Amino acid sequence: MAKVKELLFKRTLKALGWDQLTRKLADFAITSPGQELCLNLPLTTDQEIIKRELKQTSELKTLLEEEADIPLEEIKDIRPALQRASKEGILEGKELVLIAQTLKVGSRAKKFFQRRQKSYPLLYQLSSPLIELTPLERNISKCFDLSGELLDSASPTLKRLRRKVTTLRTRITKKLNAIINSPSNAKILQDRYYTIRSERYVIPLRAEARARFKGIVHDSSASGATVFVEPLELVELNNQLKRAELEVNREIREILKRLTLRVKEKTTLLQSNLEILAGIDLARAKALLSKSLNASEPKINTQGRINLHRSRHPLLVLRGGKVIANDIALGDKFLSLIITGPNTGGKTVTLMTAGLCALMVRAGLHIPAAPTSEIAIFKEIYADIGDEQSLEQDLSSFSSHLVKIVDILKAVSSSSLVLLDEIVSSTDPSEGTALARAILEKLVARKVRTVATTHYSGLKELAANDNRFCNASVEFNLETLSPTYRLLMGLPGRSSAIDIANRLGLEPNIIARARDLWGREDKSLDALLAEIDRERQKLQQDQKEILQIKAETKELNKEYQERLAKIKEEQRELANRMQEELSRETSSAKEEIARIVKELQRQKTLPRAQEARKKLIGVEKKVESEIEKHLDLQKPPEEEIIDTSTLKAGEIVEVTSLGKEGKVLEKPRGRGKVKVQVGGITMIVDPIRLRRTRPITPEEASDDHKLPAVDAQRLTANNHISPPTALSCDLRGKRVDEALEEVIDFLDQAILANHQRVCIIHGHGTGALKSAIRDYLKDSPYVSHFRAGELSEGGDGVTVVELK
Fold first, then answer.
1. 0.70 exceeded by the pTM?
2. What is the DSSP letter of 397?
3. Cβ(449)–Cβ(331) under 8 Å?
4. Are 110 and 130 in contact, with CB atoms under 8 Å apart?
5. Residue 20 and residue 367: Cα distance in Å, rounded?
6. Cα 175 from Cα 331, distance rounded (Å)
């Protein structure tokens, strides 16, 4: 069975065009090992591996879109060199240079992903096993130039020997120049130049003058007119040069042998690095393929569900041109999808799209569908597509297809996806329908997800009567009698064979006869399908108009929101300006109050006090007017208005027009205005301008007894000003808030009466009243300083206050 499954899967890959897709993927790789990985792309069913590879592809796609490319351009296939090194062979300079370049790329790639660890964690994990072999890379790089030529700096001995060779060549060429430039040799020379034959320096002589020149003949021209002679006087120098060159070659061999040995010691690490770099190249190729396909990472499930949104056949996309996107569903509410419709309408393309997407996911490739798409991991994917007659086995098209289906039925499980194109065709339609139905029912009974294409009307009825099946069709334009390549889920399709034949020019009398011969039931069914299709196209047009109206409404709403935001921004700017003006008015009021108080201290008469009272009322009205103008700038919606009956003293609220938080100083009475402390100002605010923000914090709760330094309400709290009847104020038995009210009144009157010192009697008790009063006195503008009373004054139960 294992061999049957393997053969079926190979046929499936070929039928779906998987090799074409992997070749396209390999085109995006830039290294030989990476290209090999692309062409032999592993197909796993491990969910964790698939998810990780899909995420890796997503990360690399994002990296390529937002940053520069990965530094992989100099990687070459060094596997043959590593194999030779492991077998005691000596590597050439070019091979060693390629190894050094690969090491450099590995080091750069490792650092590249280390710097981007947080942004691309999976790519970092992929590259982190790379081992930096910097000493080996430097040893090789310092010995060779980029072409693989050994440098003199490779060893001191090589440098010395090469210098010796250069010196000998200089001596030889000097003597050669003297010989060919000598007038006495002019008649025997064939030409005035020297060359090398058999690795010896020689000069060209006329053949007939050979006897007149002492030397050794090493070669002659093709015509025999020229002989190449090594002058006798250069023989020893040439011998010395040859020995020196041999010494150079021996030293070069030793250097290459030494470097090869170092490579051999690191062969395992080098092979590992190359595999990792090939894996990175594969991930890069996957990302580039995803960009080329405008593909996305799908959601993965193990429940056999396929929900592809706006899916496209990947090979058609790569070929260019317009490709119609379709939604394909399977495995959720039904197990088998039966696609019907006219020839060349796109049935097979739809079936192949589903199969290729299932394969792509197993390979860690993004699929050409919307990001909302979902697809299962199918352990087996089997397809019977195309017409393959077997001449060797003497099988017809029908038999060939049936043999495959027999094998598929033996191999499938509940985790299989089966794709059957024109199921049980090329036979009698009634028998073919019965056989196809029986096969599909068997597959569904075994929980196999199946997509089948057919022209059999009987299979359309199967989907209509059995909810394990679902009809789908490829759309056919009744006006133009041409396919649109759109898949319509839930609707059976018409083959439209007679209509298409008529459009293609078949004689009218033949078309008429065909319609007469066509079965009455088939005609009725076809008419019904045509009517359904017309209604569907009408609904589709209505939906298109609704979507257009919806888009226009959305655009109008967007425009409204932008205008509203602009108005709110202008309100905020106006509110800020008013707040600045209010702050200035408040500061001015404070200065005016201080001036009136000083004036009263100088002129302590009742008429002056009454006059000061009028001025204070005027200041208060001016401040209140500014506050009201500011508060009127914003008014919250009705549903945001606070129910004052639920407010409590100490609660934190926002004064919406100020954009500031404040503290409720006392529980409001009924639905009246609320006393709120905002920063250093106490104000009375209409509830419509308040909004709850948060509960009071413990730190704020500990400050509940504190009152502001300047109280805008208190400016006119006393409608009658009269000098205090005593220089002390007894607060024993009062609550903190009541006592503070009385202290404020008392100090107002004391200041107006020009008293320098007063006593506040609070007693000992729990200490809360004393602490509250003394905390207030710290911030009071009237107080110069204060102290606890002496024993004769009442001790710590009394606070003595010195006024300004």
1. no
2. H
3. yes
4. yes
5. 15
6. 92
